[in-house]
C-alpha cells in the first residue's frame, strides 16, 4: 500500500483512533500506555476535560481573525506567560521551529538596532535540535538534516557540548548570541547542569551576547518547573517554547525581555495563523491546569518516583540499560541494545516510547500520569528489557551450539 504522504517518516504500523488520559486506543480496540505524548506535546494527555471545554467554547465562537485585529485570548495568554517568566513580551507561532526563527531574528535585530548589524552570529551546541526550517537546521548543525538542501544558512557556529575552551574561542566580533536547549531532547535527553547554565549567563553578560533558550521540548512543566531553566536560578534574554503549550493544538511562542526585543518594531515580523483565538484559548486552558496550585509539585513527585523505579530497572537489566537521565518527566534510558529495537518491541507490548540520539529511549509521559500508571509503565519497560536478555541468552546458546 503506497501512501500519498511524502515518505519522510517511517510510521509504525498502528492506527490510533482516540485517547483517554495517558492511554491511546487503537482501531482494533487495544489500549496503549503513552510515554511519548506525541513527542512531548500532549502534556495533559488525551481528552482532558478542560481542554475539550476550551476548544468547544472557542470553536463555537471564532477560530481565526488574523493578527490585524485585537485578540483577547492571545493577550491573556501572553500576559500570563510574561507574569510567570523573565519575559516582557511574547510572539505566538504555530510550531517550535517558527518560535526559534523568531528568537533568532529577535537576537539579530537587537544588535542591528544597537548599531552592530555585524553581530548576527549565534553559537550553538553539538547534538542540538532546533527544528527543520533552513535556519533551524543550520542552528542544529546536524549534517544529515543539512545534506542536499543547498548552502547552509550562514550565522551559526557550533561548539561541542560542555567544551568551554571551544566556546571561548568561538566568540568573536560578529557573535551576537548563544542558543541552547537547557535539556537536549532529540540529542538524547541531556540536561545542561544548572551551574553550566549560570556560567553561560555570565559569559553572555561578559561579552554582550544574548542568551537564547530553546525550551520547545523541556518547557511548559515538563521538568517540574514551568520552564526548565528555573532550576538554575538564571534566565535567558529570549526563549522559544512550543510542544506542550498547546496541549496538542499547534502553538508556539518566542518570549523576550523588553531590551532584547527592542529591534522588533512595527512590521519587522509576522505570521498569518500564529496565536489565533482557537490556539490561544486552548493554550490558556493548558496554563489553567499547569499553573494550578500543586500541579508542578505533583509532577516533581511523580518524576522522582518514576526515576527511582527506572534506576531499579537499570540495576535489574544492566546489559540492556546503561543509564537513566533527564529532568522531571523528561527522562531518557541510555541503552546498550539498539534503541529502535527497544521502541519497536515496546510498541508490541503496547507501550509508546520514542527514540532519541545517543542510543536513548525517551520517556515524555503526559504530565497527568498517575503513580499507578507509572508502576504499569515500569512493569512494561521491564518486560521489554527482559526480551533482550532472553534473546541474548538464546543467541549465546546458538553460538555454543554452532561452536
Ligand atoms: C521539536 C523541537 C523543535 C522544533 O519544533 P517543531 O514544532 O517541530 O518545529 C525545536 N526545538 C526543540 C528543542 C524541539 O524539541
TrEMBL record:
It catalyses: N(2)-acetyl-L-ornithine + 2-oxoglutarate = N-acetyl-L-glutamate 5-semialdehyde + L-glutamate. Gene3D superfamilies: Aspartate Aminotransferase, domain 1, Type I PLP-dependent aspartate aminotransferase-like (Major domain). Keywords: Amino-acid biosynthesis, Aminotransferase, Arginine biosynthesis, Cytoplasm, Pyridoxal phosphate, Transferase. The modification N6-(pyridoxal phosphate)lysine is found at residue 243. Pathway: Amino-acid biosynthesis; L-arginine biosynthesis; N(2)-acetyl-L-ornithine from L-glutamate: step 4/4. Its EC number is 2.6.1.11. One of its GO terms (molecular function) is N2-acetyl-L-ornithine:2-oxoglutarate 5-aminotransferase activity. InterPro entries: AcOrn/SuccOrn_fam, Aminotrans_3, Aminotrans_3_PPA_site, Class-III_PLP-dep_AT, PyrdxlP-dep_Trfase, PyrdxlP-dep_Trfase_major, PyrdxlP-dep_Trfase_small. Pyridoxal 5'-phosphate binds at residues 96-97, 129, 214-217, 272. Transmembrane segments: none annotated. N(2)-acetyl-L-ornithine binds at residues 132, 271. It is found in: Cytoplasm. Its cofactor is pyridoxal 5'-phosphate. Binds 1 pyridoxal phosphate per subunit. Pfam families: Aminotran_3. Its main location: cytoplasm. The keyword Zinc does not apply. May also have succinyldiaminopimelate aminotransferase activity, thus carrying out the corresponding step in lysine biosynthesis. Belongs to the class-III pyridoxal-phosphate-dependent aminotransferase family. ArgD subfamily. Homodimer. This is Acetylornithine aminotransferase. The gene is argD.
